[in-house]
From TrEMBL:
Enzyme Commission (EC) number: 1.14.11.42
Pathway involvement of the protein, from the record: tRNA modification; wybutosine-tRNA(Phe) biosynthesis
Protein name stated in the entry: tRNA wybutosine-synthesizing protein 5
Domain of life of the organism encoding this protein: Eukaryota
């Protein structure tokens, strides 16, 4: 069993000034309620979405299991007209399907050329963008992307972190979100930006014994809720119902800190990438020593990293 969860705090009717002065500096997740998101929370039914976005083709994830794993790729990519996709994603059982009648669907919108262009709902789904009022709690020049997402009921996305701050806007449906602090990265069995632990509710503790040390936070998002996810906070998202959301990513660091080829907002800052490369070279150099010496100097390196780089500004 996983650790008992700590509830993510909630704030109602938060203004931009209060968010920036009181909540944002804490660098912790918080659920914002009572924010005016425009007409989308009432209008974005399955039929309305189908009619408004029409037959535009979208690339989607199709999975036969609820827990999607980006590391093992236990899903396939397929393309469907948007209206067909929405109708299927809202179904529990399908009469038309790719793999099985209970397969699940997930859309993460992409730029026109995903290798060069960011996702922006105003460009990919302009008519739908007119319905949503995005909380402008950051400077316009900090904006990075607005990602339109649709998930089948029961779908669970892998635990991962992003390198930019993020508003997860739950427009319709319900989600459960499990989060972990950046400080608990040593317990999450990382492969790049993603955790190998898929089932955060019932983890395999024989395979992942350190996972119990990770402090777990949890919240439930209703339609109209906005979850602030600070950069580097790990999050695992479970769609309790068919639902539609929009993620807004913005740059917390100066623009030059980010990888210019990053269109998804999940490539590590350039300085961090360089540091890891330097560390890999240092570890390769240690291989020239016998085991006893290699172990001794590796432990000294760890102590030096802790002394020079670890922060004390965590609870």
């Amino acid at each position: 069993m996983a650790q008992p969860a700590r509830a993510v705090s909630c704030s109602v009717g938060v203004t931009r000034d209060r968010f920036l002065a009181d909540l944002y500096p804490q660098r912790k997740p918080v659920v914002l309620k009572g924010i005016d998101l425009g007409a989308c929370t009432a209008k974005w039914t399955v039929d309305y979405l189908s009619q408004t976005a029409g037959t535009k083709e979208v690339k989607i994830h199709v999975s036969t299991v609820p827990q999607m794993d980006f590391l093992s790729k236990n899903f396939v990519y397929r393309t469907l007209p948007f209206d067909t996709f929405v109708q299927r994603a809202a179904e529990v059982k399908h009469t038309e399907y790719f793999i099985s009648e209970d397969e699940k669907y997930y859309l993460r919108s992409l730029g026109e050329d995903p290798r060069k262009d960011i996702a922006d709902i105003r460009k990919q789904f302009p008519l739908l963008a007119e319905d949503i009022q995005i909380p402008e709690y950051f400077a316009k020049e900090q904006f990075f992307s607005s990602v339109f997402r649709i998930s089948s009921a029961g779908l669970q996305l892998w635990t991962h972190y992003d390198v930019m701050d993020n508003f997860l806007i739950q427009v319709t449906g319900k989600k459960r979100v499990v989060l972990y602090s950046p400080r608990d990265a040593p317990y999450l069995y990382l492969a790049g930006t993603k955790s190998e632990v898929l089932d955060v509710d019932n983890p395999d503790l024989e395979k992942y014994p350190l996972f119990l040390k990770a402090r777990r936070y949890e919240c439930y998002l209703e339609a109209g809720d906005v979850l602030f996810i600070p950069a580097l906070w790990f999050h695992n998202v479970i769609s309790e119902e068919f639902g539609v959301g929009v993620n807004i990513f913005w740059k917390h660091l100066p623009s030059q800190c980010y990888d210019k080829t990053d269109t998804y907002g999940n490539k590590d800052p350039t300085a961090a990438t360089r540091a890891v490369q330097i560390l890999d070279r240092a570890l390769k150099t240690l291989e020239e020593l016998p085991e006893e010496y290699r172990d001794f100097y590796a432990r000294r390196m760890v102590l030096r990293i802790q002394e020079k780089a670890y922060s004390t500004n965590y609870e």
